Each structure stands twice: as C-alpha cells, then as structure tokens.
Amino acid sequence: MDPFHSALLFGAFAILLALGVPIAVSIGLSALFTLGLSLDPGAALTTMAQRMATGLDRFTLLAIPFFILSGQLMNRGGIARRLIDLARALVGMLPGGLAFVNVVSGMLFGAISGSAAAAAAAVGGFMVPRMEEQGYDRAFGAAVNIASATTSLIIPPSNILIVYALASGGVSIAALFVAGYIPGLMVGGALMGVAGIIAFRRGYPVDERVRPGETLRRAVAAIPSIFLVVLVIGGIVGGIFTPTEAGAIAVLYSFILSVAVYKEVKWSDIPGLLVEASLMSSIVMLLIATSMAFSWVLAYERIPEAITTALLSMGGGKIATLLAINLILLVAGTVLDMTPAVLIFTPMLLPVAVGLGIDPVQFGIIMVLNLCIGLCTPPVGSVLFLGCSVARTGIGATSRALIPLYAGMIAVLLLETFFGHLWL
Q: What does pTM read for this prediction?
C-alpha cells in the first residue's frame, strides 16, 4: 500500500464532499485521481469506465428498481393507512400507545416497501399530527417515526442487503433476508420499550380500545398488503424464484392491489410513479457504479489488506476489534449515505470480520444496523431530514429526542455483534 495514494484517495473524497459535490461524483473523481497516479490518464479513464460498467453488470441488481417501483406503488396505494389502522387496534391501547403504533406501522410498511424513506414519509405524514393532537411532543413523534422507519432496511425485502450481497462477492441474498428478521424485530422492540418508558414518564395518553370485531375487520383489510411479504420472502427462501424475479412479482402484486383492489392509484398516476422510480433507481445505480470502481481502486492499492492487518494486530483481542469496526461504521454512517458506505467499507472490513470468525451473513446485518443509526444522525442523515420535513420539526429538537432511541438501537447492535451467530 502506498501511503500517498491512500491519503489522496480518502483526502480527495473528503474534500469533494465538504465542497458539496454529489456523493456519486465525489466517489468517482477521487478514485479517478488516485488511479491516474498509477496509470496514464487514458488508461485510468478506460479502467474507470470498465469497472463502472462491470459493477452494474449483475443480474441481481435488477431487483433494486423493481422493489423501488413496488415501494412507490405501495406508498401511494392506501396501504400505509390500512397498516396503521391495524397497528392502532393491536397496540394503541397500551401506555404511549400512539408511539407504539408509529413503530409497528413503520415496521409493517417498511417491510412491505423495503424503503426507509417511503416508511418515514407515509407513516410520519399520518402519525405525527395524530400524536400531537393527543398531546405528544411533536419532536418526539418525529423521532419515533424516523428511528422506526430504518427497520425497513433490516427486515426484508431490503435493497441494501442486495447491495451488500453484491459488495461481499456472493453472500446469499436469501440467507441475508432470513437473517434480517430477528434483528429487525429486536430493533422494533427496543424502540417500543424506550418510547413506552418516555411516554409513561411524561403521562402521554393511550388510544381508545378497539372492539374485537373491529380489530378483526382491520386485520382482514390489511391481509392483502401483509401477504406481499409472505409472497416475496416465501418464494425466495423456498427456491421458487430469484430475488430479481421476486422484485418483478412484487411490482405486479402491488400494481394489482393499488390500482384494481384498493383503487387509490389511478391510471393517470402511473407515468409519474414510473418517472419517480426511474429517478431513484438511476441515483442508486450511479452510486453503485462509482462505488464499485472505488472498491477496485482500494483493492488495486492493497488498502483492504493493510487495514485488515492493522485491525487484526491491534491489542485487546476479538472484542476490541469488533468494537473498533462498529465505531468506524457508526462514524461513516453519519457522513455517508448507506449504499456507498456498504460498497466502500465491505471490501475493507469484511476480511477482518471473517478473520475474527464472524459469518459474512452476520457481518452484513451488523453493517446495516450501524448504518441505519447513521441515517438518523446529522450531518448526512437522509431519513432524519426527510422525517423532520414531513413532521415540520427542527433538526436540533428532533435529534435531541432521538438520543434515547439511539441507545436502544445501539443495544441491539451490540447484541447482534456478539451473539448474532446464535440466531443465524
């Protein structure tokens, strides 16, 4: 490893980010600058183009635009409201019931849509005003919504787990999907526990108890939406179809549900939904392309090997090394969006984790849990900014309200780090 080349790679990336250059462009330019020191300019440009094209030449990546479009249809198709109604019937009568409803709704809708942004927008737009009407602090409601929305990236189907499977060099997507359920439910449970304690101490009201008949009616109304998870995950785990085929089936099912069954998406809405999904997909794909080129430059400069050697040789043993890895990812999550962070840090840190005896599937969940916390954290917390925008709250007040929720998420992270092999 050439120290100067390494300093240029990360230094140029940091400077470009600080100047406000888009993340994908920052990643690509910093990789190109570094590669230009080792090769002539023409060869560097050709190599970058080849690596970007090769990075996108993966059949599994087709699942991402499918799941993005499915999430768009679900977001506009009245599904969030039905899931929220069911959640209110199940947990609304508990102390701090509306906070519990917020968490459960975020988990349900996130698991179906696979998008933290969609969950934060759909659930937060409905729940935060209702919580404020019942006497809840608006910043607290926004904080609960933001934290619970990130469970959609752990509970499958999850686009970021597909990205990790690509970056890791072949970890099974089905295995990652199955491994995400228990940690995702644990995060949801931790958030409910923290929110419940806060609500009890502040004396927040409970929701009205729903009669059994009404609960049954709401459950029946939500069954078609919840069945999407069973269809997608059951089909993948059962070997009936691949994750990419599952994404296509998710689009077809959500289209039928939103347009023909619930009739809340009109035919005239379809072009706009396709444009939105295409824009989101293109952003993700550009990030993947430049990040794969960046990862190749990392390998070319032998940086992952140097980091692996340094971390494995540090004192303190396995526990200290795993804590150091978590700290690196937590810090990275505060300044990087999730997709580039996964693509950049997986080739650097996965060999270290494997050297410590951590299963690659478990490490994928550890990485996503770390980066989920970053999505809720300034200065680049995309879900934090979206949730504050939807709730019309300030970043400062919402960030302070998130602090106890961070504690619950970090507790689950540590459990997954040291005991996650028990539920693989």
A: 0.79
